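Our consortium's second objective concerns turning raw sequence data into structural hypotheses that experimental partners can test. To show how far this objective has progressed, the report includes one record in full. It was chosen at random from the queue rather than selected for favorable results. The single chain below, 155 residues long, was entered without modification.
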Amino acid sequence: MTEISGFGTVLLFIVGALAFVLIMLLIGRILRPSNPTQEKQTTYESGEEPVGSAWGKFNVRFYVIALIFLLFEAELVFLFPWATVFGDEQMINETNGLWAQFSLIETFIFIGILAVGLAYVWAKGMLDWVRPKPQSSDFQSKIPGEVYKAFNERN
């Protein structure tokens, strides 16, 4: 009897996974009802009635707030391992409390950095749904106004 190598085992798992997925999709296609209607075919977005094309432009503020949320959420995930280490009473007793003091100081520094980031984002107005008023610029164009006018008349 021949043995299967490590690569053969991996190949068997991949083939088995693909077969499982295909079989489950086929069973689902056979068992589920299929009665599409006009309403079921429309675009659905957060309970709002669709207006216009699904390729419409979105305000960039949605993306900014989503990115800010992901940034802070990903950083807060790092607090869970700290909580498990900080809650390990045996380690605290073995190090005479030095480990607990170090991890507590480190966590306060981490939370402080998060607070500074949140204050910065808040001060810049990125958490407001209403767009901040545009500020006037001190930019002085070196192109004369008649050049702009001639360009616009030509196009």
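The partners drew two points from this record. The chain has a mean pLDDT of 79. Helices lie at 6-31, 38-41, 60-76, 79-86, 89-94, 98-123, 145-154. Both points have been shared with the crystallography group to help prioritize constructs.
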